[in-house]
Amino acid sequence: MQFKDIIGQEAIKQRLINSVNENRVSHAQLFLGPEGAGGLALAVAYAQYLSCEDKQPDDSCGVCPSCRKYQKLMHPDLHFSYPFFAKHKDDTALTFIEQWRDAFTTNPYLSLDIWRGYLDADNKQANINIAECHQIIKKLSFKPFESVYKILILWLPEYLDKEGNALLKVIEEPQPNTLFLLVAQNQDQILNTILSRTQLIKIPCLNFEDIKGELMNKHHQTETAAAEIAYLSNGNMTEALGMLQHDTKSYHTLFVDWLRLCFGNKGLDVLRFVDQASKMGRENQKNFLRYGTSFIRECCLLRAGADRIVKLPEQELETAKKMSAVINNAMAQAIITELEKAHYHIERNANPKILFLDVSLQIIKVLSFKITPTGTHYIPN
Ligand SMILES: [Zn+2]
């Protein structure tokens, strides 16, 4: 992650770069800013800059061996810690490192909700457990392997509980050339003992123009659409990116593709969909399921010849017409029931992966085998 890839926050970037060039790098720093401001991305870019072998005046070089490893979050002197949902008491952040790299490289503005989608979270509470604290102490006890600095980025220290006190010693008396970067959102939920031992870097939320520009340049939004999302997102890039996916056009494509896969009973492709859907984040998943329900309802209206009251845009209408020729009312009702049930469970924090797999299997039953999800009755036309 380079500074140039981070939206706005020019003053913070400059401050971080200056601290390196003026040799004022504090060994324990707390990046504190609201969700979607880019705290985690800034910490990673800062760490990459510190380790870069060919530092430019305003950014890391992006091509040296260190930068290349950093881009993949695979540098031996870069460590991460974050909340997770432990299945076994020995689970640590390292257990989930693959998912973590995937999540961050896909979206450096990820939230805990999005992160949850990468893990089999069930109803568990996220936390950073004592096993992880011990792991951190161990990791930081080694000398750096390749870089001048060994860096640990701890995302959301709010989830440390009182076990975090085990870390005080490494924060207070670190090994030489060891940096501890904490990235937090809520100051009052951090252990005071940790707060008092770190240098605070306050990160403001993004401004309207930064978000609008990003949406236009990188996400191909029209000026009007970008302005609308930027306005609604309140300076929160995570939210803005989520809203991009709320675009009903993409819901439409995703939903119709899903039905097609189920109709063709294409196992592997269905699993791929399940994977994609499980990473959308809860709000997005709920909206997607809601979109599906109303789309199927519109198909029923078309079947009933009530074209006049169907509100779909032209292209979606075409698909709905084709769909309504294949799906009869009993099937439509069975699918709607499944989607509504899924919505209910998503709201109650069901594991999205298991949930979307289950709904897919039910829809396959309905579409490919014409049986109701609950029984084996043939669905009449
Ligand atoms: Zn470099």
If you had to describe this structure to a student in words, what would you say it looks like?
A 5-stranded parallel β-sheet has the order 2-3-4-1-5, with helices on both faces. The radius of gyration is 24 Å and the shape is elongated. The N and C termini lie far apart (55 Å). It is α/β, with parallel strands linked by helices and 381 residues long. The longest helix has 22 residues, at 282-303. The protein has helices at 10-21, 39-51, 65-71, 97-106, 112-118, 130-141, 168-172, 192-195, 208-219, 223-233, 237-245, 248-263, 267-278, 282-303, 314-326, 329-347, 352-369; strands spanning 28-32, 78-81, 150-155, 178-184, 199-202. The chain has 2 domains: 3-204, P-loop containing nucleotide triphosphate hydrolases (Rossmann fold, 3-Layer(aba) Sandwich), CATH 3.40.50.300; 246-368, Zinc Finger, Delta Prime, domain 3, CATH 1.20.272. It has 17 helices and 5 strands. The mean pLDDT is 90. Helices cover 53% and strands 7% of the residues. Residues 52-54, 60-61, 64, 66-67 line the site of zinc ion (ZN). Zinc ion is lined by residues 52-54, 60-61, 64, 66-67. This is DNA polymerase III subunit delta. InterPro entries: DNA_Rep/Repair_Clamp_Loader, P-loop_NTPase.
